[in-house]
Give the backbone structure.
Amino acid sequence: MRDLRTLDLFRDRASAQRIYGWEGDETCGVFRIRSPIDGADLVVIASSEDEWDHVSVSRPNRTPNWPEMSHVFRLFFREDEEAFELHVPARDHINFHSTTLHLWRPRNEKIPRPPGWMVGPSKK
């Protein structure tokens, strides 16, 4: 994940103070990012701890869509990094906030990916 101080322009210090008791740093924080779709606020909570990078993205009235998640991904992760959304078995599902999606990246492991042909035709 990027050094989150590079995103200080978007940092929501008041919300972070209220929720966590401090403003955050290079590894964590609360941010307000404008949606590339309609300009509405996307509330982003990011952290890098316990060998994981984690970014949650929410809107008040609906779940973020693909262009919004992609926008946040490009802001919070470097070009050479990959992250994923995860669908777990029903017995392990946690729905703390119904309009929030998450991006995850293990810092010390490579994320396995399916072969490209299973996703779509080659761009050649």
Remarks:
- The chain has a mean pLDDT of 94.
